[in-house]
Design goal:
The complex is a heterodimer of chains A (about 180) and B (about 550). Helix content of chain A is about 35%, strand content about 10%. Chain A has helices spanning about 1-25, 30-40, 55-65, 75-85, 120-125, 150-155; strands at about 105-110, 130, 140, 160-165. In chain A, helix 2 (about 30-40) packs across helix 3. The longest helix of chain A is centred in the N-terminal third of the chain and has 24 residues, at about 1-25. The N and C termini of chain A lie far apart (about 100 Å). Chain B has about 550 residues and is α/β, with parallel strands linked by helices. Among the domains of chain B are: about 15-345, Rossmann fold (3-Layer(aba) Sandwich); about 500-554, no CATH class. Helices cover about 40% and strands about 15% of the residues of chain B. Classes of the chains: A mainly alpha (about 180), B alpha/beta (about 550). The interface of A and B includes residues 133, 145, 166 and 167 of A.
């Protein structure tokens, strides 16, 4: 009887120690889901989902507080990937009207009208605008994510969004279509 | 002993049309358009300006980045434009080109041969890079990088003279007429990678080329091997398998199995660049198909394709379009104003008689013929299925990227499905997704860094403020300090001045004369009597000064 109790206590202590050690040694920092959701998001940091960037939105989605179909730049493709990741049913972005990913745009500063106020530089989440106070600003098109956050920030409305033009560097082969012959 | 690769087809060769005449010389065109993107990797960076006088062989675009190669002026003349021009590309999109108006003098730069045996190997590679030497077999990969296997040991150097694609005979003619020079180029390549053996693979439908190359190789340990003609036996991986029996692993390069493969035309340009100091400014191009006199021509890079078709006697009646490259792997072209680039080995005038339009595609019947002929041992019907349904992950899992786009599957498909078009579509979509993913990662890193920086700045600002406040407290304890008194007086004076200005401004309200100083002190008040719209000059001034204030330390 006594030996049985001792064995059980010993067992409990040993296993408890192992578990305690494991919980310290193999501690998972943060929610691993956040990283997975973040990898699916386009990281434009535009805030169109209602959260202050892709990171907070990823956290909200991982916690189950936000719907997975709020990412406007990602469109239905991202919403579908997120729904697959979370194991929920896919809902199209923007309440059922079916939004494809927006065509890629980049901000463009009309340098003749720029007054050098640095308001857009502060608004840009990815530091894609260079310039200094009272000096002309310009957008680095390779770094611009097209989030449009700089557009309302500009006091003289000199920023416009221009669609990224197709060039040989970003050209893609088209989906093969079989031409229907004209009826004679 | 020769080996076999999986699959392959035997399309009609159509080589006799153009391989009987010697390589023709082309007259100097009046105007040459040299694309800056003639190789895989980063396009060359232009180093000349409009109006510059250039010599034949002068570098006009410098290699930009690691995977890149230079481009050169094909003749002497004046740079008349550096702008977008139509280029030979399946997209039909324009690209940055340098246009040179020929002066007809053909004045060369000073040509300096390089003694490659005495020179450092890296110096030889640098010469190849600066002389624009790229793989002329079609992939146009910079040769300087290819000939630098690093830690990988190269046991076999393969010279590719197979030229398996129908209609094309440019390598055939080059090997027949300039075998000795090709062999000189191979010697340079062999010096750079130090292989144990050198194999020269030529398809057995080119007996004259085999004989010429054998004669040129006498006295060397290079071995010329006639390989059975079968499309796509000139594919790098296929030729290596036939010659060595070794298969390049999925996703790998030939260097991974100790083999390096280069095209015969490339070897020729290596020789010209190293032993003669001549950069790549011309190449041999087959002009064939529905033209009067099909022939090979040595043409300057930048020559318009229309002039080349004229060289071959012009297109015959019934020509519907043109094909750049061969009929199996080439692409259609509607615009003959495009120039010859380093990758252009053949121009075919196509007519419905020579290339009858394919019947409309019908559904796949899963006959499996495509899998039987696939030289990469893939399952084309599955790849088609996944590409068609945009199931890119699955297509990738079925090794879509091992597809060499040879077109054997499309050639045999009884349902006439344009299979390769589907694979090209899927490949470029996947590549675009990868690019976007990379951009997203970069954006995330930049965003996180910006947040970090903003927090740090905030903390620094707070620390500075606290320091100042402490200093002020200490100063107050010491009593009236002369500096502080002076500052106070200055502020008082500024306020008085502003008041006076404001009164003046109110008096002149009709003229709306708002001075910048007033705008700084009391922007809202100074603007209120002003009938200007909010984007007026006064507003701008206040904004500018407002922004200045925010950047000043508190």
């Amino acid at each position: 009887m006594l030996s049985a109790i001792l064995v059980m206590i010993l067992l409990g202590v040993v296993l408890g120690a192992i578990l305690g050690y494991a919980s310290i040694k193999f501690k998972v920092e943060g929610n691993p889901m956040v990283k997975k959701v973040g990898a699916v998001l386009p990281q434009t940091q535009c805030g169109q989902c209602g959260y202050a960037g892709c990171g907070p939105y990823a956290e909200a989605v991982a916690r189950g507080e936000a719907a997975p179909n709020l990412c406007v730049p990602g469109g239905d493709a991202v919403a579908k990937n997120l729904a697959d990741l979370l194991g929920v049913e896919f809902q199209p972005v923007g309440g059922g009207e079916g939004a494809g990913p927006k065509p890629r745009q980049v901000a463009f500063i009309d340098e003749n009208n720029c007054i050098g106020c640095t308001a857009c530089i502060k608004a840009c989440p990815v530091d894609a605008i260079v310039g200094a106070s009272k000096l002309m600003h310009t957008v680095l098109p390779d770094r611009c994510t097209g989030c449009e956050l700089c557009v309302p920030a500009c006091p003289v409305d000199c920023i416009s969004m221009v669609p990224l033009e197709e060039s040989i560097a970003n050209w893609k082969w088209r989906y093969p279509v079989i031409e229907i012959k004209k009826a004679a | 002993m020769l080996h076999k690769f999986h699959g392959g087809v035997h399309p009609p060769e159509h080589k006799a049309e153009s391989n009987s005449l010697p390589i023709g010389a082309a007259p100097l065109p009046r105007r040459l358009v040299v694309p800056l993107r003639q190789h895989i990797g980063a396009p060359a960076r232009p180093v000349v300006e409009v109006g510059d006088r250039v010599l034949k062989g002068q570098m006009i675009g410098a290699a930009d980045g690691f995977v890149s190669a230079a481009v050169h002026a094909p003749t002497s003349g004046i740079v008349s434009a550096v702008d977008l021009h139509a280029v030979p590309h399946p997209s039909g999109l324009p690209d940055l080109c340098i246009t040179i108006d020929a002066d007809g003098e053909e004045r060369w730069i000073e040509r300096q041969p390089l003694d490659y045996l005495a020179a450092d190997r890296d110096a030889v590679r640098a010469r190849l890079r600066d002389f624009g030497v790229v793989g002329l077999g079609g992939a146009v990969f910079p040769t300087s990088i290819k000939l630098d296997p690093g830690a990988l040991r190269i046991g076999t150097l393969v010279l590719n003279g197979a030229e398996c694609e129908p209609w094309i005979t440019s390598d055939d003619r080059l090997m027949r007429e300039r075998a000795a020079e090709i062999v000189e180029g191979v010697k340079i390549m062999a010096h750079l990678v130090q292989p144990e053996r050198v194999l020269i693979g030529i398809e057995d439908n080119k007996p004259e080329a085999v004989t010429a190359m054998r004669a040129a190789c006498s006295g060397t340990n290079f071995e010329v091997v006639a390989v059975p003609a079968q499309y796509p036996g000139g594919g790098e991986k296929q030729l290596i398998q036939v010659l060595t029996g070794k298969e390049v692993p999925s996703g790998g390069r030939p260097a991974n199995i100790g083999v390096l493969c280069a095209n015969a035309g490339t070897a020729y340009t290596v020789h010209r660049a190293v032993n003669h100091g001549e950069p790549v400014i011309s190449r041999i191009v087959t002009v064939t198909g529905n033209v009067e006199k099909p022939q090979n021509f040595e043409v300057l890079i930048g020559t318009p394709l229309s002039e080349m078709v004229q060289l071959a006697g012009g297109a015959k009646a019934g020509t519907s379009h043109y094909i750049v490259g061969g009929p199996m792997m080439g692409f259609d072209l509607n615009n003959l104003a495009v120039p010859v680039a380093k990758a252009v080995n053949c121009v075919i005038a196509a007519s419905p008689a020579l290339f009858p339009p394919k019947p409309a595609a019908v559904p796949c019947i899963r006959c499996g013929q495509c899998a039987e002929v696939c030289p990469a041992s893939l399952q084309p019907m599955e790849l088609f299925w996944f590409s068609q349904s945009r199931n890119f992950d699955k297509a990738r899992a079925y090794n879509l990227f091992d597809c060499i786009e040879c077109g054997c599957c499309s050639y045999v498909c009884p349902s006439h499905i344009p299979l390769v078009s589907y694979y090209r579509f899927a490949k470029s979509e996947i590549a675009a997704q990868e690019r976007e993913k990379k951009a997203a990662e970069q954006a995330k890193a930049r965003f996180e860094f910006k947040q970090l920086r903003e927090e740090r700045e905030k903390a620094e600002k707070a620390a500075r403020f606290a320091e100042k406040a402490a200093a002020a407290k200490a100063a107050a304890g010491e009593g009236d300090d002369p500096a502080a008194a002076a500052k106070k007086a200055a502020i008082q004076a500024a306020v008085e001045r502003a008041k006076a200005k404001k009164a003046e401004a109110a008096a002149q309200a009709g003229q709306c004369d708002v001075t910048p100083i007033a705008a700084v002190e009391t922007p809202a008040e100074s603007l209120s009597p002003c009938p200007l719209p909010p984007t007026g000059e006064g507003d701008l001034e206040s904004l500018r000064d407002g922004s200045l204030n925010t950047t000043e330390p508190p």
